[in-house]
Amino acid sequence: MIESIEAVVLGYTKFGENSVVVHTLSEAYGRRGFLVHVGKKAGMALLLPLNILEMDIVPNPKSTLWGARNLTARDPLNGIRSNLYKNTMTLFLSEVLLRTVKDGQAEDGLYPWCVRSILTLDGLEADFSNFHIRFLLELAGALGFRPSLEDVAPFAEKHLAQMKPFLTSTFSESMLLPLRGEERNALCEDLLRYLEYHTESAIRVHSLAVLREVFS
Q1: What are the structural domains, with CATH classification, of the chain?
Q2: How many CB atoms lie within 10 A of CB 83?
Q3: What is the pTM of this model?
Q4: Hey, which end of the chain has fewer CB within 10 Å, N or C?
Q5: Where are the beta strands (DSSP E) in the chain?
Q6: Is 216 exposed, middle or buried (0-12, 13-18, 19+ CB in 10 A)?
Q7: Which candidate, 115, 142, 101, places its Cα nearest to that of 50?
Q8: In 3D, which of 143, 142, 114 has the Cα closest to residue 9?
Q9: Cα angle at 32 between 190 and 75, to 5 degrees?
Q10: For residues 72 and 90, what is the distance between their CA atoms, to the nearest angstrom?
Q11: pLDDT tens digits, residue range 126-152?
């Protein structure tokens, strides 16, 4: 039975010559990969990191790898796709989600929070350089372990003074916190270690190096 769902793209893996396994996060299935047949290169634009898609799911009685077809973008995300810095950030954030959320995991509230975060980043016209730091902290909360200063302290160490305002300020206030590029990079690495500890996962994010370069 074909089912229509909404999902966020976390990445994809090539599968043969004309197919990919699209790694997604959805409210219906949590984190799960679906087999998608691809043709023209233009169609690959739908699979950009953190795109929000509507698609039809086709169960496969012989395999746990189900198919997906009739992919369409729910939102154009023009505010992200027209901005190099935001695009780089989505590459990093999607990889963090891919490495952090375990296959089949479906935490209550995780998907709606993720969609809200994507649309928030899309809508920000300025002052978004701290967004990925706030995202990592909110991700911890969405996964069920709300960070406190005491909880984060062993991982932040030398950067605790810079971390503290993010734990006590509103979203809007946290976007305006003054930080140098190297300070953002350090906080980002601290929070990845924090997420590794609590999710018991090795979060090796290859796009972190690109993010460091862009926001240096």
Answers
A1: 3-73 (2.40.50.140), 78-214 (1.20.1440)
A2: 17
A3: 0.93
A4: N
A5: 3-14, 19-26, 30-37, 52-58, 67-73
A6: exposed
A7: 115
A8: 114
A9: 80
A10: 19
A11: 999 999 999 999 999 999 988 899 999
